[in-house]
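Methods — Computational structure assignment.
A single polypeptide chain was analysed. Its primary sequence is given first, followed by the predicted tertiary structure written as structure tokens.
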Amino acid sequence: MSTDKFPGRRAGPADLAQGGDSWRIFQIMAEFVEGFEKLEQIHPAVSIFGSSRTGEDHPWYETTVEIARLLSQCGIAVISGGGPGVMEAANRGAQQGKSPSVGLNIQLPHEQVPNQYQDISLNFRHFFARKVMFVKYAAAYVVMPGGFGTLDELAEILTLVQTGKSRRIPIILVGSAFWKGLLDWLQQTLVDTGTISQQDLDLVYLCDEPQMVVEQIWESYAGRSIEPSTEEQMIQLEL
């Protein structure tokens, strides 16, 4: 195969990659379209994050099941990453209530097996498309203890809310002992050096008990609807 710009030269890896990237646009579009179509009717919803390595007998797993169950009983759908650990616990708890249990599964080099507790299951190749689905339809973020992926999602929503690219939703960290070091660092390093403002820390709530999590979500919406306003819907269109 030759290129028009350099007749006689065979296409190399860069040329093939460029062609692949162009066609990949349609795959990305398909992920967004399927996500929008399946999730736009699922509201209100709460996204729950946490470690995929958390075992079924771990207190974090049990706490997540109870949080999701309480939310589901309140008429709030639960969205998780669809995998094992805390994600499984979130979907499992949601199915014990009356609201949909949603899993946004991601294809990884080390294959993630979808958990069995999903009423609605979507599959993504691209993290960025999956992230949009987590944010776009969430009335709150509940962040259990976790690793890099959990921290990534936490930083993502904090940035979006801080910059006004997403509507303000409660961001709840569950587990004082686990999150204390991070919160101390945010205060003593980021706030004290001026890289974030003191009020930016007001975006985060800290809870330990499942009932506290649910109460904090409802308290955060006191005086306003848990459903996005017209103005907030317009903001969400630009995610």
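Note: Strands lie at 45-49, 77-80, 101-106, 120-124, 140-143, 171-174, 204-207.
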